[in-house]
Write the structure tokens for this entry.
Amino acid sequence: MSQISDKNHLYTVDERKEAGRFHQKKIALINDFTGFGRCSLTVSLPIISAMKIQCCPVPTSILSNHTAYDSWFFEDFTDRMQPYIDEWKKLHLSFDGISTGFLGSEEQIQIVLRFLDDFKEKDTVVIVDPVMGDDGRPYATYTEEMCREMKKLAARADILTPNLTEACILTGQTWHDGRWPIRQVRALAEALSEMGSGRVVITGIPQGEFIANYCYEKGKEPKFVRTHRVGMQRCGTGDVFAAIIAADAVNGVPFYDSVRKASHFIRLCIEKSIEMELPPTDGVCFEELMRLLCR
């Protein structure tokens, strides 16, 4: 039987699980690891840790830097994901939250669905960021088969965080440029909720000088969270947003309050990045403002 030790005692895995000795809350985070450019795991892990939750990453791929640069190193981790996860099964690990980001293939989505079968318990919160596309188009890697599989994953979410493009892809609605009337946004959110998710936030909705997030929760009145549009679009802001939503969900923060916090934090990060004259490809310098999340 596997054993885990501290200074005074040697614990079996069963003893550890039964006694709940190390009950710091944990989130399993499934996403790619990108070394430079502030996105994916390298953004989410420090943010979730700052919010006093143990972040346990499952890498889907390894990149030297994100693909907005002219060149990059890439290593697909798909074949290694299941053996990696199987070791966690041997340890009988449990998680308070499971959060997913960009998935690069139909096979990876299937692995994540099996992960939910193996690790989701009654009180585990599942947060799905369906990173599928932007500006009205799916990403080049997303086939029709992948879109169908992502719908299955979205249906398993307790919290779903799509942008407008992804909300349209998931619901089969037509995307259009320009202003979105409230009734259309609400219809999208309701359709996403009917797929299975109790809490939905549709992100990045253009409203003139504002960018809005639409917060929809079953049994409550939907609300917009608006922030002034600042600067250019930057890499990794969706990962920052999803990390805060995931950590707050596990910490029991009300959903609307969490969406408002994440929206405000990202605006401050963008403003600070502009002040520091960082190029958009470098993402947002969230490190400068982490103290705000540690409160």
About this structure: Confidence is low (pLDDT under 50) at residues 1-5.
